[in-house]
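Hi L.,

You mentioned the student needs an example of a multi-chain input paired with its predicted structure. This one should do, with 950 residues in total across all chains.
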Amino acid sequence: MQDFCVCDLETTGLEPRQDQIIEIGLVKVQQGEIKETFESLVNPGTLLPVKVKRLTGLQDDMFKESPFLSDIAPDIIEFIGDLPLVGHNVSFDASFLAWHLGIEIPKQFDTLELARIICPDSPRHRLHDLCVSLNIELSHRHRALSDAQATAQLSFALMHKVQNLSLAYLARVNNFLKQADSAWIAYTASIIKDKMRTLTGEGLKISYPLPDTVKRRKPRHSQITEIIPVNKEYIKSLFSATGPLKDQLSYFEVRPQQVQMADAVTDSLNENKCLLMEAGTGTGKSLAYLIPSLEWAIANRQRTLIATQTINLQEQLWTKDIPILKSTLENDFSAALVKGRSNYLCLRRWETVMDREVQLNEDEAHFFARILVWLGKTKTGDKSELNLSKKEQEYWLQICSDPEICQSSYCRWFHRHCFVGRARMKAENADLIITNHSLLFSDLRSEHKILPSFGPLIIDEAHHLEDAATSHLGKQVSRVVVRQWLQSIYKTAGKLTALIPPSEDKQWQENLNNIRKERQNAGQQVTQFAQSIGISLKPLGNESFFKTAIRLRPNEDIHQFLKSEGANLITILKSVMQSLKDLLILLEMFGETDELWLEHAWNIKELIISGDNITNDLEFIIGVGDENHVYWVEINGESDFNLVAAPVRVGELLFKSLFKHERGLVLTSATLTANESFQYFIERTGINLLPAEKVLTQVVPSPFNYDQQCILCVDKDIDIPGSVSEETYFNQLAESIVEYILAMDGRTLILFTSHNALRETYNRLKGPMEQVDICLLGHNLDGSRTHLIEQFRESSRSVLLGASSFWEGVDIPGPALCNVIIVKLPFWPPNMPVVEARLEELDSSGLNGFSHFTLPQAVIRLKQGFGRLIRTGRDKGSVIIMDRRVITKRYGKVFLNSLPIKTHIRGDTGIIKKRIANWLQDPEPTPRWTSIKDTNDIKRNLEMWSKRHI
Ligand code: SF4
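Structure written out for the whole complex:
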């Protein structure tokens, strides 16, 4: 493609019918070179939204002299002429040009579309990120001409990459693009033509690069008779001022808390004991457990397993800590990051997808083209290289490895390329395995078929253990899962219809017809089931932390209703399964003479196995028969359901499967205790079933000086929710929050316990924030969690509103975050099925559910929320609790005693603002208790502190 026009627009928003163009940049490319450019600001006739000002750097006064769009429309139209339009997400620019200028451009080429395929493993495909990775200059991000020029360079680079693809890959990419109805098809077809003309001997057979070779090492001990203890003094020396870590870490400092933790971990490994370790933020706990556990594993020829809850921590261990240890420790070691099978591509399933002749939809065709190009370079087959979107995650399920359908040694890929086999062999050779809670529990469920045997076990982020066990050791069936299964049957049947059977043609046709008919019936039954659940049960639910959830109890009306509706669904699903089984018999018969039919038989087996799992789980859930399970149905919207069964007590399960084995065991987190006691954690996770002498507990405080770095405030102005009308409550709340935000000049994270409260507050803050140019970012309202945190981190005057997932894992050091507002004490709603069942269970054992479960759980969550503020030794700021129960109720003391700060102030919004201002002005911790000084200028004091911080 030689001649085209690149366009980039800046606009006031995303909707052409509502929003205005504010800047236009055009670049004319002729004969593959940039020949001419056009740029202009465009007077929108309105004020710019704050987010747009932030993004572009444009200000309202810059438009005073600018032309209106109608003034420059003829120039724009003439510049573009009849050239094809190229853009990064070109349909956005084209839709604005069409609506505001009335020009329709028939040929549009999207660099975003092509980049996603040709640069499949780029962590992001935004223009800026691609420019960084492809070394393209982008002088003014989010300014129209600069973006358009960079897009032109990007298009050159991408076209160059297309030209470098081998003919075999290019032909298949071309095929996928054809199915996606992509404009780029003309370009790829022309390259194929050129290659065919000029290249000889380049075959059309696809070859994949071989993964790294893995040599099998000596097996580990499965049992050890005598422990070889690790020398504690040696471990301590590694953390000392003269130790090897100092040369590896640019931020190295001797942290007594870290040494203390490493010492305790060494003890627990040497003595085969269970250590519960609460290590405050900033301890450096990952190295404090990695070093002793690695040394111990090497000395004792045992594998150590480390399990984290979040991918972020897993990645940090793998990409930061392990490389440091590789260059620090004298002993050579091997480590492996083990993920579930579904993270890896299955080459057998991939080939099946490539071979099938079913028409793909546009997104699917793009996805498979992307995977194909990626397969030409990946050595791991691990999807984390791809940064898949939500929709792509669904497509991934068609090609990922699945334990139920893996052909193992019968598969032709097994001995050479199979990504899963390679990853497994690496894990078997490793001294240290890093995995996550989810896989640890999947391994337990599968009777240890997933992870290699291991000795010591370290569970980080252990405060999640009970929840992780609850969700992974339970069962669930959702409408999405059933529909995906039926959809796969539809696609497979479509593909088989195109084949000519070697014999039994009549029966073959009959079986296929049966499958189609049964599948259609099942689809209707699922819809009917979902609708009747929605109509009958929705009024019974109420909005809480998550979706509407309704508990199922044996023989109650709701259960009877679901039982009869569910029984019909199960009957129909079983009919579908029977049709599949009939077809399988035929396919296996055909396979005796032709292997190709065996491949189809495997696909049908896959469907039967998944169908079995769905019907078994469904039967279990609607049976509501197991006393140690709680059952409920979640309703999302009018017609989405999720049926769930979860264990009520996980302690015994954890004890039997993980804790009772003779092994060193470390459970650690920054928040394990409530009111300075581990009792809650011990009771909930089954640690109480271990002999007392086997359990060590220790709290290592954070090295941060919370009393100097932070001020804790309780706002008494706000009524308790429920004591006044919702309207009054949210108005009061918003009024005070606005005052705090204005005083802080943004820089605030607000934590909510419900999405409803978040939305209500967001709507009330929006107007006042727009007026003062403070950027408001709402969870699920302005983008995904990651995107919002990134935006907040990069901006100095922003307010972030987050619900459940924002209470932990948000790490924003420095002046961008100086204030955390906790709207409500984070009690779980007592009517959540799992919570309700656990309270009932405690009650029946004669224990007080509030003090043994509800309160400590909320305390741990509050500690997590509080922990968002101080992330480094130089951070400073306030935490404001807007729930006065923390000072008016007796249990409030438990919350306050559990926080790492000794004192707090209480008062109305005005008093609190003055106290914070006083405190910020004077770096010493005492002024908050002295008389209030004249100043209440928090903003100015914060500025001064920020400067000191920088
Ligand atoms: S061995 Fe299993 S996971 Fe590997 S390619 Fe074959 S079927 Fe897929």
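You could point out the following to them. Residues 4-164 form a domain with the Nucleotidyltransferase; domain 5 fold (CATH 3.30.420.10). DSSP finds 35 helices and 23 strands in the chain.

Best wishes,
N.
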